[in-house]
Structure formats: C-alpha cells, structure tokens
C-alpha cells in the first residue's frame, strides 16, 4: 500500500543516507586514530618542552638580588649587610694554628643586622667574573655566616670572615649574603661588589708570610 | 604481560652485570665530574689527634688529591672514593675526610682549589694487614633533573678502580 504524496508519513526521514559500508567505517576509525595520535604528540611535545639551555626553573626561581656598594648597608627582607673592609693574605688564624691555602685568602670585615625578627645568615660566598661561587671557608668555624649566630633585630654585629679563592679569580669579586644555607630559590640576597685589584696585589697577598688574625663577632653600636 | 614474556625470550629478563670501572694507575687523574681525583696511596694509622677511635680499631686511610671542577662550593667530596676488599671496616663510607695541610674537616671544598685529602675509615685492629687494596673513584653526570627541572650532578657511578699499595704507619 502506498502513501499519498500529499500526506507524507510523519515518522519518515526526509533525507536519508545509506549506512556506511565497511570501507567507510575503516576510514572513519583511521581518521579518529590519526587525530588521537596527533593530540597525544602535541600534548607530549608541550609537556616535554624545555628551554634550549635546559634548567628553566633555575632561572625562573633565581633569588632576588639587592646590589649595593662597599661601605654602605644593603637591605634585604630580613637583614642589612655591609662590607667595611677587604684585605688579602696567605695565612689566617681563627683560633689556634694558622691556615694556609692553595689560593689566596680574602678577609672581609662585615656588619650584619637583622631587621624585624631574629635571623641567622646561612650563606656567604664570593662570586667571580666567571660566575663561580666560593663559600666562606668551613675549614674552621665561622658562626656568623653559617647560621650559628642568631642576630637580634636592630643589634649590629661585626666580624671578619675568610674566603678561600684561586689566585686568578681574586682580582674582581663580589660577595653575597643570604639567610638560607641550602635552598635560596626565590629568596632575597644582598650582593656587594668588592674593589677590583690587580694580579700583582693578589700575588703580594699570597706571598705575605704574616698570618692575619680574624676578628671574632662582636656587637657594635647601631 | 605478553611484552614482558616476549622480552624474556630474548634475554630481557637476564641479570645485567654492572660495567667494570676501568683500571687506573696510582697517581693518575680521574675525571669524576664534578671532581678531579688523583689517588696517591693508602695507609694504616693508629691514633690521630682530635679524632675519636673506637676501642680495638685503627684508621685505614686513602690519600687523594681532589679538585672541585664545578662552579660552586660542594659538600659531596666524601663520596668520591670508596674501598672494596677490605675486611672489618666499621662503615661503608669514610668516617672523616681531612685536609692534610691543616687536618681540618671542611664541610665544603671550593672550585679550582685542589686539596690533598685523607679519607678515613675505622677498621677492626684484629684484621690482617692488607698489602694492596682496590679503591674506586666515583663520578656523576650533569643533566636535567626531571623532577626539579634544574641542571644537577646526578647518577653516581664508578669511573675508575685503582689498586693501591698499603703502608703500615702505625708505628710512626
């Protein structure tokens, strides 16, 4: 029985495509698979992307460095630091016998003061022109810069601190101070360039037989 | 699971021996990265000033010149040297590392400043005195740390093995 053209079946489909055949179904699945692989490849590339030199987080999380000059206090969030004097020598005495070195000793007279809360300084290092860092020596105790001396707010403490560096690195250095001994990411740091010296001066320091006695930490007037 | 089984068929599950460290002569520099290490000798010693030695023990010392080749002060120089074939050591790692120039025990060594060091192990005094020992020099690889996304010295591995004569200095 046929349906009159002027009264179409309301349930019928106006335009009907034939169901896909086996070849079309295969093509469709291949297309979906290709898109899936492409999406995974793009996602993987994004997840594994690194800057050309690698280690991007090192740059992203670098400390905030406050730079000052010798003789002037440099303020950070937790403390103020100043370098008052720099001298070099072949031997230093902390307590007991002199200590010699394969390089040269740089002795800095520094002043540190906590700002608003008791603070320790866990990091003091010289930095040369090549970016190499030399921590304050640990061959003998230097409590003021190894988190061993608690600084009280507003009470300045002065001391001499010794650093051991190769002679060829000693002509142009800066010193850095920070609270944290190990993890200094995104922390504040004070940096003070030291007066440059020529190689002849460094060689004279390194051949000076007279040991330098390091001044122990002491509280000074604000 | 099928992949694992297939891998096993072709030797994928066989135990893998650690690669041997190349033999090096006493006195030759080994690039450990981040250290240059030159093992120069070993000796037995008795009491040392300022160091506590357990009852019935002696010091077994390995002497080496170590230079930090990194760009910053490092505190892992105690890991640069290990010992095998020595019986009666109290610890696997050295108990102390002394700078020979002043017998100090620094926490850090600075870049570019080679130091003669003594790596000290406590050893039971009743053990026979060895004439030679095997010393391993360890190094690391500077690579991107996939967790912290920072460049680090990682993956410690043996870089060299040195057969070192032992001097008995207990009488001296």
TrEMBL record, chain A:
Claim: Signal is one of the keywords in the record: yes
UniProt keyword list: Signal
Region feature (Disordered): 1-25
Superkingdom classification of source: Bacteria
Regions of compositional bias (Basic and acidic residues) in chain numbering: 1-10
This protein's name: DUF4352 domain-containing protein
Source organism: Plantactinospora endophytica
High-level lineage: Bacteria, Bacillati, Actinomycetota, Actinomycetes, Micromonosporales
From TrEMBL, chain B:
Superkingdom: Bacteria
Protein name (database record): DUF4352 domain-containing protein
Species per Swiss-Prot/TrEMBL record: Plantactinospora endophytica
